[in-house]
Amino acid sequence: MIEVTGLSKRYGPKLAVDDLTFQVRPGIVTGFLGPNGAGKSTTMRMMLDLDRPTAGAVRIDGRRYTDLKDPLTHVGALLDAKALHGGRSAYHHLLCLAQSNGIPASRVGEVLDTVGLTAVAKKRSKGFSLGMGQRLGIAGALLGDPQILMFDEPVNGLDPEGIHWIRNLMKSLASQGRTVFVSSHLMSEMALTADHLVVIGQGRLLADTSMADFIRTNSRSYVRLRSPQQERLRDVLHQAGITAVTAGNGTLEVDGAGSEQLGELAARHQLVLHELSPQQASLEEAFMQLTAGSVEYHAHTEPASPASGPGWGAPRTDSGASEDRGSTGGGN
User: Fold this and answer.
1) Where is the region Disordered (predicted)?
2) Does the first or last residue of the chain, that is N or C, have fewer Cβ atoms within 10 Å of its Cβ?
3) What average pLDDT does this structure show over 169-192?
């Protein structure tokens, strides 16, 4: 289990992470979401003691990461797939990690096979594509057979087969009782992978809840009805105390009543229905609804004219700051 308590990080005047408290429990995949600049990467770095918190603490099974003996056997992490020596082969990169953490050399071949890199094990990693680098980073995370795994944007650069593979891998690891914590901007993929969500915005905790509750709480659910007897259907609904709103394509939208209730009501009045479909927002829609006030960088649909700004299509932000946050130390 990962326990985050009162975690804060300040870079000069910039508060990148603001008093975060949450737990990442074993047996489920926990998704870590937030807009660009929300503080996700900074938080994950503090979990691994790569950055020192301004306040608060992180405990890995009750201990700080730096107090763990042979840490790769406790926590496996992929934060930056490019963080490796390009002159080393995939095999020797993993062998160095294994030797520094008391892991048998035989484990190197096992994880290379797991991630599908056996055929290029002796090739230098500097020639790897982004997707191959991601697979090597995942192999490094799996190397110590840890009970806790952390992945920051693990599907970057992967093809559809690779995305399907990493999704099933994370779900399989969680089903074994391991703690799996994953950050991603791909909402459609997160919706298929995560069981629980931790959502932050501008460094503050916005939600810590199950996937189903998150979508239900932050979106509108309704039932869509379409009938060739629309006016009569509307009258029947009105008589039953149900409000229907006219939508496009000759449909009605009903809030506060289930599809079963509406179908039975139509059947009792011998009304023909061409459509009776419950509608639930996607994770992306619910996420956009919750984080609308926490987005730091806003794109604009109308490009600036060459005469009105520093350059054609130059990025704009509400604060006028550059999108390169390296000077403040902030991250995703």
Assistant:
1) 300-332
2) N
3) 91
First-to-last alpha carbon distance for the chain, in angstroms, is 23
Q: Which residues contact 304 (CB under 8 A, 6 or more apart)?
A: 312, 313, 314, 316
Query: Domains in the chain, start-ordered, CATH in brackets?
Result: 2-216 (3.40.50.300), 222-279 (3.30.70)
- Rounded alpha-carbon distances, angstroms, from residue 118 to 77, 115, 136, 169: 21, 8, 10, 18
- Indicate the SS3 state at residue 210: strand
Q: Which residues contact 100 (CB under 8 A, 6 or more apart)?
A: none
Rounded Cα distance, 322 and 220, in Å? 35
Candidates 118, 10, 112; CA nearest to 56 is 10
Structure tokens at 234: 């509307």
Query: What is the spatial distance between Cα 250 and Cα 86, in angstroms, rounded to a whole number?
Result: 60
Q: How remote is the C-alpha of 95 from its chain's centroid?
A: 30
CA atoms within 13 A of residue 119's CA, in its CB half-sphere: 3
Please provide residue 276's backbone torsions phi and psi, each rounded to the nearest 5 degrees.
-145, 95
Tokens 């609804």 belong to residue: 289
Q: Do 136 and 80 touch, CB atoms closer than 8 A? A: no
pLDDT tens figures, 75-97: 999 988 777 777 888 899 999 99
- Output the 3-class SS for 179-207: EEEEECCCHHHHHHHCCEEEEEECCEEEE
Token pair of 39 as six digits: 């503080």
| pTM of this prediction exceeds 0.90 | no
Side by side, the strands of the sheet bearing 204-210 are 75-78, 148-152, 179-183, 29-33, 196-201, 204-210
